[in-house]
UniProtKB/TrEMBL annotation:
Name the UniProt record assigns to this protein: DUF58 domain-containing protein
Lineage: Bacteria, Thermotogati, Deinococcota, Deinococci, Deinococcales
Ranges of residues in domain DUF58: 52-255
Record organism: Deinococcus xinjiangensis
UniProt xrefs under InterPro entries: DUF58 (IPR002881), vWFA_dom_sf (IPR036465)
Highest taxon above the source species: Bacteria
Annotated Pfam families: DUF58 (PF01882)
């Protein structure tokens, strides 16, 4: 997909990044796995946070023996500690040509949200991979640690929307490589014919879905385009152009169709405890993070 040749400007204000650095992503059932992260797991082993005592078993490290408790009970007892692990986070960003429409452009907000969520995950020690699809499917690879944030934000900042690759084509490439129990964050307009099937495929792999739908004000209310004969262009070129009469009946039918489509999308996501947010491209990323994600527990 196209990249800007010049170095990108900051996607997010420094003050917002400082605020996000103290936050963490919240998963409902996605689970921490392996690695050296900051999330307590059910596993017990070497660590710094005391969990419990248990009877000594052959093969245990004698350095884990609790001398005081052993002396008091008369049987060898070892200390157990909480093992801190990392959450696998996969962010799939729609960078196809359809995201380049709208005023402001849908891709601007979508990219900022991808950057913010990736930054929060990196700050929390999670294992992060970002995949963008448009003119092909592109990935920066798995990353961990806030020291990788500059590289990731720079990569996102150079992306430009273009091309016809669909969410279904991208998620087959990406989510199949993410482990079961990963948190998969999908960001796009979800107006593709096969997008619901793509979301279901992610959930079928036992991965938790957070779906962020970004639509332009004109897509939500085409009455803003005016009335009468209007020529509509397919941003990805597959359907060409069509001329429609934007009268009251057409606008009403469009609103009903869009509402039904989005209701079905929401049900598809929430059926397996996923979360679905519909966002407008003229909203500020910082406002969305504070008013939506902080308050509703996506980020804490």
């Amino acid at each position: 997909m196209p990249h800007a040749p010049a170095p990108p400007t900051s996607l997010l204000p420094p003050a917002l990044l400082q605020e996000l650095a103290r936050r963490r992503l919240v998963a409902r059932f996605a689970r921490a796995q392996g690695g050296a992260g900051e999330r307590p797991s059910r596993a017990r082993g070497p660590g710094v946070e005391f969990a419990d005592h248990r009877p000594y078993q052959p093969g245990d490290d004698i350095r884990a023996l609790d001398a005081q408790v052993t002396a008091r009970l008369g049987v060898p007892v070892v200390r157990e500690y909480v093992v801190m692990q990392q959450l696998p986070v996969l962010i799939v960003l729609d960078a196809s040509a359809s995201m380049g429409v709208g005023q402001p452009q849908k891709f601007v907000l979508a990219r900022q949200l991808a950057a913010a969520l990736a930054f929060v995950a990196l700050s929390g020690g999670d294992l992060v991979q970002v995949v963008a699809f448009g003119e092909g499917v592109h990935s920066l690879g798995r990353m961990q640690g806030v020291n990788r944030a500059t590289e990731l934000l720079g990569w996102l900042g150079r992306l430009r929307p273009g091309g016809p690759v669909t969410l279904q084509g991208a998620q087959g490439h990406a989510s199949a490589r993410a482990p079961k129990g990963a948190l998969v964050i999908l960001i796009g307009d979800f107006l593709g014919e096969r997008d619901p099937q793509a979301i279901q495929a992610v959930q079928a792999r036992g991965q938790e879905v957070l779906a962020l739908q970004v639509l332009s004000p004109d897509e939500l209310d085409p009455a803003r385009l005016g009335r009468g004969l209007t020529r509509l262009e397919d941003a990805e070129g597959a359907a060409g152009s069509v001329t429609v009469n934007l009268d009251a009946a057409t606008l009403s039918a469009y609103r009903q169709a869009l509402s039904g489509w989005n209701d079905a999308l929401r049900q598809t996501v929430t059926r397996h405890q996923g979360r679905f947010f519909q966002l407008r491209s003229d909203q500020r990323a910082g406002d969305i993070l504070r008013r939506e994600f902080f308050r509703q527990g996506v980020i804490q």
